[in-house]
Amino acid sequence: MKSIYLATVLLVLVSATFAAPNPRYNPTTREKRRRGSSSWSGRRSLQPRDSCPVPEDVAVVAPKANPFVSLSQDEIDSVAMWLHDPAQGLNLTNTSSATISLSDNYIWHVDVLKPNKSDVLSYLDASGVVPRYARVTLIEGGREVPIVGEYSVGPLPISNSTRKEALDNIYNGPNGAKLLWSAGPVDSLRRAAIDSLMNATLAPIADLTNDLLEMAFYGSSDSRSTMIYFMQSPASTDGEKSVFWSPFRRNGMEPWDQPSDLYIQFDITGTDASQWRSMKVVYNLEVYDSVQAFYSAWKAGNVTKTSPPATNIEFLYKNKTGSTRELEDRMAPTVLSLDGNRFKVDKEEQYIEYLGWTFYMRFDYDVGVQFYDIRFRGERIMYELSLQDAIAQYAGNNPFQAGTAYMDRFYGIGAASVRLIPGYDCPYHAAYLNGSYATTNQESYSQINSICIFETDIGTPITRHMNPVWSQATKGSKLIVRMIATVGNYDYLWDYGFYVDGTISVDAHASGYIQANYYRPDDEGRWGPRVAETIAGTLHTHVMNFKADFDLVDEKNSLVKTEIVVENVTQPWFDESFEMMRYNISDVETEDDGLMDLPANGQTMFTVVNKDHTNKWGQPRGYRILPGLSNVVLASKSSPFFRKSGQFAKQPIAVSRQHDSEPASSATLNQNVPDAPLVEFWKFFNGESLVQEDLVAWVNLGMHHYTRSEDIPNTLMSEAHSNIFFAPQNWGDTELTKDLANSVMMYAEGADNEIVIETNGVEPPSCLNLGPEDSLLGVFTVSE
């Protein structure tokens, strides 16, 4: 065998530490130039190493100012002042007033109104101007028929041309941009009234609750209260009434997992809290017509006591227990950018560049981080990629769990974002951005370091091949933009990935504490197994809807359906017919066919293409919508709690025409009006053409949560995971990584089969300790 290794990599290691010098190794000047200078010695800790520098950010300035920025405090104040002006005739009460009541009109939220796509494209691609407006939510309890209404106020800054108009143009529900007051948000004023009702109901029966539940309630601010209540969501169907069931749990660490067996129904309809009342009671699955009837039955000894919530809650603690696993005293592997970050961030404009990718971001109170003007190699792929809502539908053998259907946008996913933990939530040396939004207290707020940005190895090469003549491998990497929100009991992690090959991914993970059920042996695990002394896991489904507004080259795109069909064929070169597969390619021509299921066995591919722009081979340039792990939808399609409000979560993929009047598949105020939501998603699909039009794909991630003992104390993100990909499909003339320098090519050259190792001048930094097994020497050889 003849082998000449033209690689300075690991020469010092091989010659000085582990082996005798290779007598054949005598690199020429040409070979040194080909390899470039290198300080990669490959030693582990056998001699002092250079220290790795902290990655330095490379400055970048966004080409244009971000058109999606949140309102400043001055803008919020000016809008509030304008609304309070008697000239507007709104009769608003200041929320800081000591005499404010449920029957007053007041401001609940002032936020930026997301601009129309047509205005933004005119600004980004030409010299247009993006008008700036505020989105205002007013709680109008002083009306003859009290409502909660959404309005636009603008243009900003405030001037003589500023107007307030109902946002009926973006809400297609039966009541436009308003809902009846009883279906509105539970703000601090309404919450205080509910707390008074709870105190008036429960304090008089404290002897009963102390006996049956071993806890009592005297008001949320009373130190004697050892019990806490929760409100069922949704609490209404159309706003005509607001009636909810409340479970009662031990007040302490993570009450989600300390439920009792008591449920009380309450009617809180209307702005007159003196008319609110308790209704039915369920205890031990026995139904009582009133609290008084329940109390009387208990006094008479006719109530069978069930086990109260466990008082030993060590099962909820996450502190380390048990002996340390072998070698677990060493730090776990982590992602490091030893040569410095390969991405650039304009923090002021929330603009990012990474290996051919560019995009803007915005942060939203309702849903958190969103992405705009996503381009790869200078060409726009998507105008928008954004979370729309995250919902959860529960089941269970009690009135609270059976009637629970959360729409987390209602609670403010962005507002629930958390400061990320370096080294745990995000790798060390990640870049961080703040999430800025307007609170419901009319304040501009920034959650520090709620978004992290880092590059990571995808765990595999992006391409590779080895044969007797040559060998190659290209490193696989992607940029991750991550956000985590703690919405009540659950922590949701969203990763948006931008791969070096032009692929975009969205990953969703969940952790936190399950909303446990009270354990009853007679349930026989039909809604979840027993996971602790007095609790059972609860069957539920998470669905997260995302908007992907494709603009492949321009806004004229089509949706192509490529099916794999199997048929019997007869061919002259075979003696008998046999089954063979082929493509059946067709356009999805109209929105009538835009609500789509995923066929069995993955035998259908959906591709957004631009027929007016082909690659070198005449193929329409496009991107594939590629379902990944656990793309689930709601199991129950006709539940009354998501009847119309959850239509977006009832099919894996939907594709519609883009309209500025259809900016979102859900709405913040949809939670309590499943029969009369502000947005009815299926109304988007009204027969319009999908051929060479501006298309939006609405895709779902999710998990059917089959609860288990391993959910205690916290759900594991390894399993609670769902993702989807948007991958190039004939977008280029070849695959899109041939311009990457982080690749190696090895081949034989010349009569003596001298081995050439090309790494394009990219070497591991000198601070990286490497061993002999990390050497490229000898990986590729040629046999004579």
Automatic annotation (TrEMBL):
Domain DUF1965 intervals: 259-308
Signal peptide: 1-19
Pfam families for the chain: Cu_amine_oxid (PF01179), DUF1965 (PF09248)
Cofactor list: Cu cation
InterPro entries, A to Z: Cu_Am_ox_TPQ-bd (IPR049948), Cu_amine_oxidase (IPR000269), Cu_amine_oxidase_C (IPR015798), Cu_amine_oxidase_C_sf (IPR036460), Cu_amine_oxidase_N-reg (IPR016182), DUF1965 (IPR015328)
Cofactor note: Contains 1 topaquinone per subunit.
Top-tier EC class: oxidoreductase
Keyword Oxidoreductase: yes
Residues where 2',4',5'-topaquinone is found: Y490
Post-translational modification: Topaquinone (TPQ) is generated by copper-dependent autoxidation of a specific tyrosyl residue.
One BP annotation, GO: amine metabolic process
Keywords, in A-Z order: Copper, Metal-binding, Oxidoreductase, Signal, TPQ
One GO MF term: quinone binding
Chain intervals for the UniProt region annotation (Disordered): 23-53
EC number: 1.4.3.-
A single Gene Ontology CC term: plasma membrane
PROSITE patterns reported in the protein's UniProt record: COPPER_AMINE_OXID_1
Span of domain Copper amine oxidase catalytic: 334-734
Positions annotated as active site in the UniProt record: D408 (proton acceptor), Y490 (schiff-base intermediate with substrate)
Family: Belongs to the copper/topaquinone oxidase family.
Full protein name: Amine oxidase
Taxonomic lineage of the native organism: Eukaryota, Fungi, Dikarya, Ascomycota, Pezizomycotina
